[in-house]
Amino acid sequence: MTLLIDGKYMDADSGESFQSINPATGETIGNVSAAGAREVDAAVRAARAAFEDRRWLCLPYPQRVKIMFAIADGIEATLEDLAVNEVRENGMPLHMARATISNGAEAFRYYGGWIGKLHGQTGEIAAGEAFHAYTLKEPVGVAALIVPWNGPFMLACHKLAPALAAGCTAVLKPAEDTSLNTLNLVQIVHEAGVPAGVVNLVTGLGSVVGQALAEHPDIDKISFTGSTATGRRLIEASAGNFKRLSLELGGKSPVIVLDDADLELTVPGVLGGIMNNSGQACISGSRLYAQRGIYDKLIQALADRASKLVVGNGLDKNTQMGPVISQKQFDSIMGYIQSGVEEGVEVVTGGKRHGDAGFFIQPTVLSHVPADARVVREEIFGPVLSAMPFEDLDWAIKEANNSRYGLAGAVYTRSIAKAQRVSRAVRAGTFWINSHRPTDFWMPFGGYKESGWGREGGIQGLEAYMESKSVITRLY
Ligand code: ADP
């Protein structure tokens, strides 16, 4: 039973389900209920009723804070099991699963800490002293939280924590390939004391469950992380009642390496930036622009290091890179590599299947890639780095911005001035200098251009689940 509606576990009425596959072995690890519009409606009604009767919001705020902290504690108490489940469903290396689950727990502490601390304002109004004016921050209502498969547990936490902190109720919809661990999350949420009906879980196909949530008139807000194509569909489907949308979509993040870069920092930085999670991250630094003086040395060093990455089952303790999520994703990535070959790129390392079971792809570095090749223009979402040399920094900046995406970017240089110049010039929501990874809950995360709408993280991420109300009182 993978649906949780109004505090009750159930299966889809139709009895339909699909298998969850371990991407490292191709074996089935469990069955996931395929809900239909009926279950979506029941979950939305439960969340709506819970919102209207204020069963969550009426709890005194210190109690809600305690519950949020108890969720974090509950996650940490079972961290090892959750991490192993995450590896079995998603394929990521165990050390990474531990880190992402632990990060999910921290999201509840970070946003739990905000409860009771976000206030409206009071102020004068021009109409004069006879009026008292203030603003209120109120929860937006019922939120649909649609989660992708590339960091399933952590990304569910990144949405659920601010939604609960804001006082919303929620319907959580995990991705088809990674639904099972989400069930553990909602169980912990309930054990910590969140009342039944406040958080509901509906598993199933995106085209059915996700679509029904997007169209449902009783959903007030959608927080979605996924592909730009699905994001566009959501905008259309949700227009009926003008849902508030937070969209964290695709990316094709540029990485610019200048001649003066420190190779010791740059090589692991660039490689980690693309190969982490087998390249299945929206922030992956997938386009490398390296200056001519450092290009050959850098590509060689990247290729050497990439070819030595330990690829394997995430449960093996030496594994540095796991499989990609599914046969479909495997075929898509291999298709991109093939298209690169047809467009004349040089495959410096990788480019092939790794092993003969599961969905493993060798860490791949493509060099001398034409600026208009598909592997440069489109998001591959796999362990594939496309590299191009440049002479002139202005050209590199122009090419970095020559993309419909604007999620992230990075520059490697010893020059503070050049680093700052590039960080200002690249149109992206997150930018790293001499690195490609760390960020924090307080830092807004999201994209320019077709990488999305709005920001998750920080106060902005919390306010995305809130409305503002202006109240004006006549005193005399
Ligand atoms: P991918 O193509 O990599 O699977 P998606 O953007 O399609 O990425 O998936 C991200 C999430 O969006 C998943 O939970 C998926 O089920 C859901 N989804 C897919 N299609 C739709 C849709 N039409 N409406 C709403 N959600 C969808």
Automatic annotation (TrEMBL):
GO terms for molecular function: oxidoreductase activity, acting on the aldehyde or oxo group of donors, NAD or NADP as acceptor. This is Aldehyde dehydrogenase. Residues 10-471 form the Aldehyde dehydrogenase domain. Keywords: Oxidoreductase. The keyword Protein biosynthesis does not apply. Pfam families: Aldedh. The active site is at E248. Belongs to the aldehyde dehydrogenase family. It comes from Kineobactrum salinum.
